[in-house]
Design brief:
Chain lengths: 169, 182
């Protein structure tokens, strides 16, 4: 099983049944897998906060929604996290590729990449750093914590996960 | 016709639709006219009411969802029109009360008072059912006869808010009773 398949399996096993997505090159394989399998409903959105709105509405109907986005989108989402999700205690799972960290080649990603872990702390969002294949299973703990506590969680998928593939490129 | 008059007519047209209502004056006015557990009042996150409505519509395909949005709020989240048009076919109606102003913040003009028209943007986004209402007496008959589908209904009104109190419900109350009833 490759990294994308391992992440997909944990997402599915943890009960996530709706994904709101924006693309990232790091998430390319995972997005393709979700689309190919057709087991989890996936809706591409135009901006991350729009995805938060859809996720909140879906949660009201009993769904377990997740955003699958680049960490840059966390910055776009701040007001929606505070004045929608946290105001109403609506939990959403944020699964984010962590751009702008170690090994980043695009300079514009770095400021937001450096801020991301601290921003999650400031927002009172529990963070789960997934930087090795062994830690992928922690995604399930994150989803369970989110469901049980009615709090959103932030899962950061680190570039190291796909290192082999990147080395090939 | 002002927003309050339009919302009165929307309420008159209701059968058992779920309502997801925009923040500020629209929610206050809807609460004042007719509070019901199947009203979800969005209190913050300006721009996202149509996105929340889409989420509810996707999760409850057997129910009909009406979203009360405004011109200023829709202009804040225009991407929502593409997402809704591409993902909804059955049970969601966007009702845009277009008073060409940011009503809750003191009636500052929006661009729909200038060159922008939202029904054309909706058409470009992919909506097939688009209706513009200018007369108060047309609202009930149009809304009652929408039928199954994904509709964009724009009601043109004058600016101005009714003198009504804030929604006295706590956010968690709004959420919990809505989740129970649907």
């Amino acid at each position: 099983m490759n990294v994308d398949a391992a992440i997909y399996k944990v997402i599915k096993d943890s009960g996530i049944d709706l994904i709101l997505s924006l693309p990232c090159i790091m998430l390319k394989g995972l997005l393709e897998l979700i689309n190919d399998k057709g087991e989890i409903q996936i809706i591409p959105v135009t901006r991350e906060e729009e995805g938060i709105g859809i996720a909140a509405g879906a949660y009201l109907t009993g769904k377990t929604p997740a955003l699958l986005i680049q960490n840059s989108g966390l910055g776009n989402s701040v007001n929606a996290i505070k004045s929608l999700l946290q105001l109403y205690k609506i939990p959403v799972v944020f699964i984010m590729s962590h751009r702008g960290a170690e090994g980043e080649e695009i300079i514009a990603q770095i400021p937001m990449g450096q801020l991301t872990p601290r921003l999650l702390d400031i927002l009172n969002i529990k963070k789960y750093i997934i930087d090795s294949v062994e830690k992928i299973k922690k995604i399930k703990n994150a989803v369970e914590f989110s469901k049980n506590s009615n709090q959103s969680v932030g899962i950061l998928l680190k570039r190291e996960l796909w290192r082999k593939r990147y080395e090939k490129i | 016709m002002k927003r309050y008059d339009a919302i009165k007519k929307i309420v008159e047209s209701l059968n058992d639709e779920l309502i997801i209502c925009n923040l500020g004056a629209p929610s206050r006015e809807l609460y004042n006219i007719s509070d019901r557990p199947s009203n979800f009042y969005m209190l913050g996150s300006m721009g996202l009411v149509s996105s929340i409505a889409l989420g509810v519509a996707l999760g409850r395909p057997n129910k009909t969802v009406w979203c009360i949005d405004g011109d200023g709020s829709l202009l804040m989240n225009l991407g929502t029109l593409s997402t809704i048009a591409n993902n909804q076919s059955n049970n969601l109606t966007l009702i845009i009360i277009d008073n060409s102003s940011y009503g809750s913040t003191g009636n500052q003009s929006t661009y729909t008072s200038g060159k922008t028209n939202l029904e054309t943007i909706a058409e470009g986004a992919g909506f097939k059912s688009i209706t513009v209402i200018e007369k108060e007496e047309d609202i009930v008959v149009i809304l009652k006869n929408l039928g199954i589908g994904c509709h964009f209904v724009l009601i043109k009104t004058k600016p101005g808010n009714a003198e009504v109190d804030n929604v006295p419900l706590l956010p968690e109350e709004i959420k919990t009773r809505f989740m129970k009833i649907i």
